[in-house]
Amino acid sequence: MSKPDTTSGTNPQTATDRRSLLFVHAHPDDETVGTGATIAHYVARDDVDVTLVTCTLGEEGEIKTPHLARLEAAQADQLGGYRYAEMAAAADALGLEDWRFLGGAGRWRDSGMMGTPANDHPRAFWGADVDEAAADLVAIVRQIRPEVLVTYDDFGFYGHPDHIQAHRVAMRAAELAEDTDYRPDLGQAHAIRKIYWTTVPKSDLAKSFEEFAGSEDNPFGDITSVDDLPFGVDDDVVTTEIVAEEAAGPKKLAAMSAHATQIAPEDWLYTMAAKLGIESILAEHYILVKGERGPGKGPHNWETDLFA
Ligand SMILES: CC(=O)N[C@H]1[C@@H](O[C@@H]2[C@H](O)[C@H](O)[C@@H](O)[C@H](O)[C@H]2O)O[C@H](CO)[C@@H](O)[C@@H]1O
Ligand SMILES: [Zn+2]
Fold first, then answer.
1. Predicted TM-score (pTM) above 0.90
2. What residues bind Zn(2+), as annotated (predicted)?
3. Which of 14, 78, 155, 187 is the most exposed place for a label (fewest CB within 10 A)?
Protein backbone atom coordinates (compact mmCIF):
# COMPACT_ATOMS: atom_id res chain seq x y z
CA MET A 1 0.00 0.00 0.00
CA SER A 2 1.71 3.23 -1.10
CA LYS A 3 1.28 6.06 1.35
CA PRO A 4 0.01 9.46 0.15
CA ASP A 5 2.83 11.88 -0.62
CA THR A 6 3.08 13.94 2.53
CA THR A 7 6.00 15.97 1.27
CA SER A 8 4.36 17.83 -1.62
CA GLY A 9 1.15 18.69 0.17
CA THR A 10 -0.89 16.33 -2.02
CA ASN A 11 -1.80 14.17 0.97
CA PRO A 12 -5.61 13.61 0.77
CA GLN A 13 -5.59 13.69 4.56
CA THR A 14 -4.45 16.92 6.12
CA ALA A 15 -1.08 16.68 7.78
CA THR A 16 -2.78 17.12 11.13
CA ASP A 17 -4.75 13.86 10.54
CA ARG A 18 -1.61 11.75 10.42
CA ARG A 19 0.20 10.47 13.52
CA SER A 20 3.91 9.67 13.75
CA LEU A 21 5.52 6.77 15.65
CA LEU A 22 9.30 6.54 16.10
CA PHE A 23 11.29 3.43 17.06
CA VAL A 24 14.96 3.70 18.10
CA HIS A 25 16.82 0.40 18.07
CA ALA A 26 20.50 -0.63 18.36
CA HIS A 27 21.11 -3.24 15.62
CA PRO A 28 19.38 -4.57 12.52
CA ASP A 29 17.10 -7.35 13.84
CA ASP A 30 16.17 -5.69 17.13
CA GLU A 31 13.28 -3.91 15.41
CA THR A 32 11.83 -7.27 14.40
CA VAL A 33 12.67 -9.40 17.42
CA GLY A 34 11.42 -6.86 19.94
CA THR A 35 8.80 -4.80 18.10
CA GLY A 36 8.17 -6.43 14.72
CA ALA A 37 4.50 -7.15 15.30
CA THR A 38 3.92 -3.63 16.65
CA ILE A 39 5.64 -2.09 13.62
CA ALA A 40 3.59 -4.22 11.21
CA HIS A 41 0.43 -3.33 13.13
CA TYR A 42 0.90 0.44 12.97
CA VAL A 43 2.27 0.42 9.39
CA ALA A 44 -1.01 -1.25 8.40
CA ARG A 45 -3.02 1.63 9.88
CA ASP A 46 -3.81 4.34 7.34
CA ASP A 47 -3.37 7.22 9.77
CA VAL A 48 0.09 6.42 11.17
CA ASP A 49 3.56 7.05 9.74
CA VAL A 50 6.19 4.74 11.27
CA THR A 51 9.90 5.62 11.34
CA LEU A 52 12.71 3.31 12.49
CA VAL A 53 16.14 4.62 13.46
CA THR A 54 18.78 1.92 13.95
CA CYS A 55 21.99 3.06 15.65
CA THR A 56 24.55 0.64 14.16
CA LEU A 57 24.93 -1.76 11.23
CA GLY A 58 25.61 -4.75 13.51
CA GLU A 59 29.16 -5.30 12.25
CA GLU A 60 30.24 -7.37 15.27
CA GLY A 61 27.46 -9.91 15.20
CA GLU A 62 27.95 -13.65 15.41
CA ILE A 63 27.07 -15.16 12.03
CA LYS A 64 24.53 -17.98 12.16
CA THR A 65 24.66 -18.69 8.39
CA PRO A 66 27.78 -20.84 7.84
CA HIS A 67 28.25 -19.91 4.16
CA LEU A 68 28.67 -16.27 5.22
CA ALA A 69 30.99 -16.95 8.16
CA ARG A 70 33.97 -15.17 6.59
CA LEU A 71 32.07 -11.88 6.50
CA GLU A 72 32.64 -11.62 10.24
CA ALA A 73 34.47 -8.65 11.75
CA ALA A 74 37.62 -10.70 12.47
CA GLN A 75 37.90 -11.79 8.81
CA ALA A 76 36.41 -9.84 5.82
CA ASP A 77 34.57 -7.41 8.16
CA GLN A 78 31.68 -7.16 5.70
CA LEU A 79 28.82 -8.09 8.03
CA GLY A 80 27.70 -4.48 8.45
CA GLY A 81 26.99 -4.04 4.76
CA TYR A 82 25.30 -7.41 4.60
CA ARG A 83 23.06 -6.57 7.55
CA TYR A 84 22.10 -3.33 5.80
CA ALA A 85 20.60 -5.52 3.10
CA GLU A 86 18.96 -7.74 5.72
CA MET A 87 17.46 -4.59 7.28
CA ALA A 88 16.04 -3.57 3.88
CA ALA A 89 14.45 -6.99 3.40
CA ALA A 90 13.02 -7.02 6.91
CA ALA A 91 11.57 -3.52 6.50
CA ASP A 92 9.97 -4.67 3.26
CA ALA A 93 8.47 -7.68 5.02
CA LEU A 94 6.99 -5.46 7.73
CA GLY A 95 5.73 -2.89 5.19
CA LEU A 96 8.02 -0.30 6.78
CA GLU A 97 9.00 2.47 4.35
CA ASP A 98 10.91 4.92 6.54
CA TRP A 99 13.96 3.23 8.08
CA ARG A 100 17.22 5.02 8.72
CA PHE A 101 20.58 4.64 10.45
CA LEU A 102 21.56 7.18 13.10
CA GLY A 103 23.96 9.70 11.52
CA GLY A 104 23.74 7.75 8.25
CA ALA A 105 24.68 4.10 7.62
CA GLY A 106 28.13 3.41 9.10
CA ARG A 107 28.35 6.48 11.33
CA TRP A 108 28.33 4.38 14.50
CA ARG A 109 29.77 0.87 14.72
CA ASP A 110 28.39 -2.09 16.62
CA SER A 111 30.27 -2.16 19.95
CA GLY A 112 30.20 -5.91 20.46
CA MET A 113 29.21 -7.55 23.73
CA MET A 114 30.04 -5.72 26.98
CA GLY A 115 33.74 -5.88 27.83
CA THR A 116 34.96 -7.03 24.41
CA PRO A 117 37.72 -5.19 22.49
CA ALA A 118 35.14 -3.95 19.96
CA ASN A 119 33.87 -1.62 22.71
CA ASP A 120 37.01 0.47 22.08
CA HIS A 121 36.72 0.77 18.30
CA PRO A 122 37.01 4.51 17.38
CA ARG A 123 33.49 4.45 15.91
CA ALA A 124 31.95 2.14 18.52
CA PHE A 125 28.51 3.42 19.46
CA TRP A 126 29.30 2.64 23.11
CA GLY A 127 32.01 5.32 23.00
CA ALA A 128 29.86 7.94 21.26
CA ASP A 129 29.38 11.32 22.87
CA VAL A 130 25.69 11.09 23.77
CA ASP A 131 24.93 14.71 22.89
CA GLU A 132 26.71 14.39 19.54
CA ALA A 133 24.74 11.28 18.62
CA ALA A 134 21.52 12.77 20.01
CA ALA A 135 21.83 15.82 17.73
CA ASP A 136 21.29 13.63 14.66
CA LEU A 137 18.23 12.12 16.30
CA VAL A 138 16.88 15.57 17.24
CA ALA A 139 16.95 16.49 13.55
CA ILE A 140 14.82 13.42 12.77
CA VAL A 141 12.44 14.08 15.68
CA ARG A 142 11.93 17.67 14.60
CA GLN A 143 11.35 16.51 11.01
CA ILE A 144 8.84 13.70 11.61
CA ARG A 145 7.43 15.18 14.85
CA PRO A 146 6.47 11.84 16.50
CA GLU A 147 3.64 11.65 18.99
CA VAL A 148 5.16 8.43 20.36
CA LEU A 149 8.75 7.18 20.82
CA VAL A 150 9.67 3.56 21.55
CA THR A 151 13.15 2.56 22.76
CA TYR A 152 14.81 0.47 25.51
CA ASP A 153 15.01 0.89 29.29
CA ASP A 154 18.21 2.14 30.93
CA PHE A 155 19.61 -1.44 30.96
CA GLY A 156 19.10 -1.63 27.22
CA PHE A 157 16.58 -4.43 27.86
CA TYR A 158 19.36 -7.00 28.39
CA GLY A 159 22.54 -5.08 29.02
CA HIS A 160 24.15 -4.91 25.57
CA PRO A 161 26.26 -1.71 25.35
CA ASP A 162 24.62 -0.56 22.10
CA HIS A 163 21.19 -1.04 23.61
CA ILE A 164 22.13 0.94 26.71
CA GLN A 165 23.55 3.68 24.48
CA ALA A 166 20.46 3.65 22.24
CA HIS A 167 18.37 4.29 25.37
CA ARG A 168 20.63 7.15 26.48
CA VAL A 169 20.72 8.79 23.04
CA ALA A 170 16.98 8.40 22.45
CA MET A 171 16.02 9.83 25.84
CA ARG A 172 18.52 12.68 25.50
CA ALA A 173 17.24 13.47 21.99
CA ALA A 174 13.65 13.58 23.27
CA GLU A 175 14.75 16.07 25.94
CA LEU A 176 16.74 18.26 23.54
CA ALA A 177 14.15 18.16 20.75
CA GLU A 178 11.59 20.00 22.87
CA ASP A 179 14.08 22.63 24.11
CA THR A 180 13.33 25.78 22.10
CA ASP A 181 16.82 27.14 22.86
CA TYR A 182 18.57 24.00 21.52
CA ARG A 183 19.91 24.09 17.95
CA PRO A 184 17.11 25.96 16.13
CA ASP A 185 19.03 25.04 12.94
CA LEU A 186 17.81 21.44 13.47
CA GLY A 187 14.18 22.47 13.14
CA GLN A 188 11.29 23.74 15.21
CA ALA A 189 11.19 22.33 18.75
CA HIS A 190 8.93 19.30 19.22
CA ALA A 191 7.70 17.61 22.39
CA ILE A 192 7.04 13.87 22.11
CA ARG A 193 3.75 13.15 23.89
CA LYS A 194 4.43 9.52 24.97
CA ILE A 195 7.64 7.53 25.47
CA TYR A 196 7.70 3.75 25.95
CA TRP A 197 10.45 1.26 26.83
CA THR A 198 10.26 -2.30 25.50
CA THR A 199 9.78 -5.06 28.07
CA VAL A 200 8.50 -8.61 28.63
CA PRO A 201 6.13 -9.59 31.46
CA LYS A 202 7.51 -12.35 33.70
CA SER A 203 4.23 -14.24 33.29
CA ASP A 204 5.04 -14.68 29.58
CA LEU A 205 8.57 -15.79 30.41
CA ALA A 206 7.20 -18.29 32.90
CA LYS A 207 4.97 -19.76 30.17
CA SER A 208 8.01 -20.12 27.88
CA PHE A 209 10.00 -21.74 30.72
CA GLU A 210 7.23 -24.27 31.15
CA GLU A 211 6.97 -24.96 27.43
CA PHE A 212 10.70 -25.48 26.96
CA ALA A 213 11.40 -27.26 30.28
CA GLY A 214 13.42 -30.40 29.65
CA SER A 215 13.61 -29.88 25.89
CA GLU A 216 16.95 -29.97 24.09
CA ASP A 217 16.28 -26.64 22.38
CA ASN A 218 15.61 -24.84 25.67
CA PRO A 219 16.82 -21.26 24.98
CA PHE A 220 17.03 -20.60 28.71
CA GLY A 221 19.79 -23.17 29.17
CA ASP A 222 20.30 -24.01 32.82
CA ILE A 223 18.44 -20.93 34.10
CA THR A 224 15.51 -22.25 36.09
CA SER A 225 13.89 -19.09 37.39
CA VAL A 226 12.53 -16.09 35.43
CA ASP A 227 14.01 -13.93 38.20
CA ASP A 228 17.48 -15.00 37.06
CA LEU A 229 17.03 -13.66 33.53
CA PRO A 230 18.62 -10.27 32.63
CA PHE A 231 15.25 -9.05 31.38
CA GLY A 232 11.56 -9.23 32.25
CA VAL A 233 9.40 -7.32 34.73
CA ASP A 234 6.50 -8.07 37.04
CA ASP A 235 3.21 -7.88 35.14
CA ASP A 236 2.07 -4.81 37.10
CA VAL A 237 5.12 -2.87 35.85
CA VAL A 238 4.00 -3.39 32.24
CA THR A 239 1.61 -0.61 31.12
CA THR A 240 0.89 -1.59 27.54
CA GLU A 241 0.31 -4.74 25.50
CA ILE A 242 0.09 -4.45 21.73
CA VAL A 243 -1.48 -7.57 20.27
CA ALA A 244 -1.14 -7.32 16.52
CA GLU A 245 -3.68 -8.75 14.11
CA GLU A 246 -3.08 -12.27 12.76
CA ALA A 247 -1.82 -10.89 9.42
CA ALA A 248 1.18 -9.44 11.27
CA GLY A 249 2.38 -12.96 12.16
CA PRO A 250 3.67 -13.95 8.73
CA LYS A 251 5.16 -10.46 8.31
CA LYS A 252 7.15 -10.79 11.55
CA LEU A 253 8.27 -14.32 10.61
CA ALA A 254 9.35 -13.08 7.15
CA ALA A 255 11.24 -10.19 8.76
CA MET A 256 12.94 -12.63 11.16
CA SER A 257 14.01 -14.80 8.22
CA ALA A 258 15.36 -11.67 6.50
CA HIS A 259 17.80 -11.34 9.41
CA ALA A 260 19.20 -14.81 8.65
CA THR A 261 22.77 -14.07 9.81
CA GLN A 262 21.37 -13.37 13.30
CA ILE A 263 18.29 -15.56 13.59
CA ALA A 264 18.92 -19.20 12.61
CA PRO A 265 16.07 -21.49 11.51
CA GLU A 266 16.44 -23.44 14.78
CA ASP A 267 16.34 -20.20 16.79
CA TRP A 268 14.13 -20.22 19.89
CA LEU A 269 11.93 -17.51 18.38
CA TYR A 270 10.81 -19.89 15.65
CA THR A 271 10.53 -22.76 18.13
CA MET A 272 8.39 -20.61 20.42
CA ALA A 273 6.06 -19.66 17.56
CA ALA A 274 5.82 -23.35 16.66
CA LYS A 275 5.26 -24.54 20.26
CA LEU A 276 3.09 -21.71 21.60
CA GLY A 277 1.39 -20.71 18.34
CA ILE A 278 1.74 -17.62 16.14
CA GLU A 279 -0.06 -15.54 18.75
CA SER A 280 3.02 -15.92 20.96
CA ILE A 281 4.92 -13.56 18.63
CA LEU A 282 1.99 -11.18 18.05
CA ALA A 283 1.95 -9.74 21.58
CA GLU A 284 4.64 -7.19 22.47
CA HIS A 285 4.86 -5.28 25.73
CA TYR A 286 5.90 -1.82 26.82
CA ILE A 287 6.34 0.42 29.86
CA LEU A 288 5.02 3.99 29.54
CA VAL A 289 7.67 6.34 30.96
CA LYS A 290 6.41 9.68 29.64
CA GLY A 291 2.84 10.83 29.01
CA GLU A 292 -0.57 10.04 30.38
CA ARG A 293 -1.58 6.39 30.59
CA GLY A 294 -4.60 5.75 28.40
CA PRO A 295 -7.57 3.45 28.93
CA GLY A 296 -6.67 -0.21 29.35
CA LYS A 297 -8.10 -3.68 29.81
CA GLY A 298 -7.49 -6.95 31.63
CA PRO A 299 -6.23 -7.67 35.16
CA HIS A 300 -3.47 -5.05 34.92
CA ASN A 301 -5.47 -2.52 32.89
CA TRP A 302 -2.83 -2.59 30.16
CA GLU A 303 -3.22 -0.02 27.38
CA THR A 304 -3.88 -1.66 24.01
CA ASP A 305 -2.74 1.25 21.81
CA LEU A 306 0.50 3.26 21.93
CA PHE A 307 -1.50 6.37 20.98
CA ALA A 308 -4.09 5.80 23.76
C1 LIG B 1 19.55 -9.21 19.69
C2 LIG B 1 20.88 -8.48 19.70
O3 LIG B 1 20.99 -7.41 20.28
N4 LIG B 1 21.89 -9.10 19.07
C5 LIG B 1 23.22 -8.47 19.05
C6 LIG B 1 24.18 -9.29 19.91
O7 LIG B 1 24.21 -10.59 19.34
C8 LIG B 1 24.75 -11.57 20.24
C9 LIG B 1 26.25 -11.74 20.00
O10 LIG B 1 26.49 -11.97 18.65
C11 LIG B 1 26.80 -12.88 20.85
O12 LIG B 1 28.16 -13.05 20.52
C13 LIG B 1 26.04 -14.18 20.57
O14 LIG B 1 26.54 -15.19 21.40
C15 LIG B 1 24.55 -13.99 20.84
O16 LIG B 1 23.86 -15.16 20.49
C17 LIG B 1 24.00 -12.86 19.99
O18 LIG B 1 22.65 -12.59 20.33
O19 LIG B 1 25.49 -8.67 19.87
C20 LIG B 1 26.06 -8.53 18.56
C21 LIG B 1 27.42 -7.90 18.72
O22 LIG B 1 27.30 -6.66 19.33
C23 LIG B 1 25.13 -7.69 17.67
O24 LIG B 1 25.63 -7.60 16.36
C25 LIG B 1 23.75 -8.37 17.62
O26 LIG B 1 22.84 -7.60 16.83
ZN1 LIG C 1 20.60 -5.52 19.46
1. yes
2. 27, 30, 163
3. 14
